[in-house]
Amino acid sequence: MTIAHLRTYTINKGMLDAWLELFPTLVPLMTDAGIKVEGTWVNEERSQFIWIRSYGDSVDNIAKAEAAFYGGDWWLANVDHVRSHLAHREIVQIESA
What is the spatial distance between Cα 32 and Cα 27, in angstroms, rounded to a whole number? Predict the structure, then answer.
């Protein structure tokens, strides 16, 4: 079993290209924290960024990995810039069947 989040981010108008340039910067930071980016997509209207990030085989890993990521120096210094791209976030916890 794999525990994951299906995340849908509505991107502020005109900021998708900037988000697509920024996001790869976040991936190694998430990897170091124990979060694996499984895949990313953009909707047809180019207004949403959809992605899946996984945490291994236990719900307990979510809090540990997120604490490591959100507590990291880079994130703390750049959180406002990162979130300035986002109009709305929807997060659904999922698990493999």
Answer: 9
